[in-house]
Each structure stands twice: as C-alpha cells, then as structure tokens.
Amino acid sequence: MIIEIDGLTRRFGTRRGVTDVSLHVDAGEVFGFLGPNGAGKSTTIRLLLGLYRPTSGRMRVFGLDPTREAAAIHRRVGYLPGELALFGRLTGREHLAHFARARGLTDLAFRDELVERFTAELDRPVHTLSKGNRQKIGIVAAFMHRPDLLVLDEPTSGLDPLLQDEFARLVRESVDGGQTVLLSSHELDEVQRVVDRLAIIREGEIIVTDTIDGLRKASPRTVEFHFGRPVEAAAFAALTGVRVAEHERDRIVLSVTGEIAPLLRVAADLDPVDLTARPADLDELFLSYYRNSPELHDVH
Ligand SMILES: Nc1ncnc2c1ncn2[C@@H]1O[C@H](COP(=O)(O)OP(=O)(O)OP(=O)(O)O)[C@@H](O)[C@H]1O
C-alpha cells in the first residue's frame, strides 16, 4: 500500500480542516480525491506530505510517517500544489533547472519530452505567463523525475481541453509504468476518465469511497411509466429502493435503486402503455453528494 490514512483529523483552532478521514491508495492505482471548494482536499494532501501536523489519527506514505520522515517521502514524490508558488521574475527554464538540481536529476530527456507535449513556455519570466501556462511548468516539474508517487492538487485547472487530454494520457502512462497517482479535483469531469477509484470529501469528511463503476451501479436509474388512465402512486412508493420522483395523473417517474422485478409486477397490474428507462447519471449522483441529498445517500 502506498498511502494509508486512518482516522485523520486536523483542526485549525475552532475551524474544521478534516475530520476522521480514512483512505488507502494501492501501488499502481490512480486515486481521485473529489469535493467542493473548502472540503479538505488540500489539507489532507498537506498532511500527507508532512506540511501540516495532524491533530489526531495515523498516516503512512511508503510505510513512512509524514510527521517525522517527510524528507524521505518527498524524495519519492512529485507534488503539484493547488497554488503553485513560483518566483515571478525567473523563467520556466530556470525553475525546472532548479528543481532538477535539487533532485539530482541528470537525465533531462523526459523533461524535454514533457515540455514539448505540454507546449510549455520556458523562456519568459513566469509572472508574464497565464495561469494555464504556469500550470504546465508545474506539471513538468511534478512528473519529470518519474517519482513513485504523484500527488496532484487540481492539476488541470487552467488547461485547455487538448492539454487536459494530454494530461490524462500522461497519468495513464505513468501508472502503466508502475507509478501511483493521487489526484484531487472539484470536478468529476477532470477525474472520471483517469481514476480507478475515488473518494468524495465534503465538509471535512469522506462520504463515499468507490470505483466509478461501483458508483454508477449504486446510483439510481430513472424509470418512467405512462398508463392509459390516472393511477395511484402508493403501490410504487411502498417498494424498497423505489422513490416516486414525479406523479401526474397517468404518468409516474420513479428513481430506482432496488430490484426491478417487483417494480415491473406492480406496474404490469396497472396496464402501462409506455415505459422509458435511463441509466444512472454519474453527474447527478456526484452533485447529489455535494448537495447532500438524502435519498441518494441511502444507497451506500
Ligand atoms: N492554514 C489554515 N488555517 C485555517 N484554516 C484552514 C487552513 N487550511 C485550511 N483551512 C480550512 O480547512 C478547510 C478545508 O480547506 P482545504 O483548503 O483543505 O479545502 P479544499 O478541499 O482543498 O478546497 P479547494 O478546492 O478550495 O482548494 C476550510 O474550511 C479551510 O478554511
């Protein structure tokens, strides 16, 4: 296991940072860490890298304790912080040279490949660069030494769609080559193409950890019936795992997480004339976790 977090809590005075966070990331996995702004993603990442001390709980990265062995962890990590701190008057080239020296990196072929793939602008002072162009330098710096673990805090913010695709390819290549990736984001789109598993954090607490497939299977399907005459919804509402989302005279829309056969038996007795069903929409499920909509959370 590359990352282990068990019951991790960090408070900032009376402010909540993170509360009782537990998760693990296996070797060779891309793990997504999702949540709205202020949910506690960056705090968790900083704790993992030994940049904050925990109030309580246990963490290990490569089996090492971040509060005591941060330097040993950093040697094996590529970190792209959410707020990239660069020296405004220095160029990208100067930054990368500095990072390469600090890591004792002498083979610069992969750095050059990344610069080209991300069309990073290396010869202008970074304060003259757009957010996206600064982000490219951060990406090159995080990946160029092929670290065992990549910790990427909102990595594609500011990148155009083509470069987001390039980034997704780079992440997949990295894990194919044996690296492990922890990737935080507040957007499902940013992570759903690349992650194997994800955790959703909200108000400092993990509310679900699952694979994308698992989330999809657990999320409700929408089933709509039309009947030739007005019907009552009570028999549907009584079924386990069925919620009546809409009901008007001869039309009923259901949100279904339970078994389909009992539902069809109830419907058949009412002589339906039409039926449409659509699969789970991951975006809706994801937003419901952000909003904390209770009926969807019952599925976990
Ligand atoms: N150094 C700090 N001092 C005081 N409060 C802090 C500090 N760092 C984080 N917090 C608080 O901890 C909570 C979690 O913040 P964090 O930055 O981890 O969220 P996040 O999920 O990374 O959000 P974002 O997507 O906006 O970066 C917030 O309520 C924030 O105000």
From TrEMBL:
Q: How does it sit in the membrane?
A: Peripheral membrane protein
Pfam families the record matches: ABC_tran
PROSITE patterns assigned to the protein according to its UniProt record, in alphabetical order: ABC_TRANSPORTER_1 (PS00211), ABC_TRANSPORTER_2 (PS50893)
Indicate the segments forming the ABC transporter domain, all copies: 3-228
Q: Is ATP-binding there in the keyword field?
A: yes
The answer to keyword Hydrolase applying to this record is: no
Q: Where in the cell is it found?
A: Cell membrane
Q: Which Gene3D superfamilies match?
A: P-loop containing nucleotide triphosphate hydrolases
Give the matching CDD domains. ABC_DR_subfamily_A
Q: Where are the transmembrane segments?
A: none
One GO MF term attached to the UniProt entry? ATP binding
Q: Keywords on this record?
A: Antibiotic resistance, ATP-binding, Nucleotide-binding, Transport
Q: Which domain of life is it from?
A: Bacteria
Give the family this protein belongs to, as stated in its UniProt record: Belongs to the ABC transporter superfamily.
PANTHER family xrefs:
ABC TRANSPORTER ATP-BINDING PROTEIN (PTHR42711), ABC TRANSPORTER ATP-BINDING PROTEIN NATA (PTHR42711:SF5)
Protein name listed in UniProt: ABC transporter ATP-binding protein
Q: Which organism is it from?
A: Jatrophihabitans cynanchi
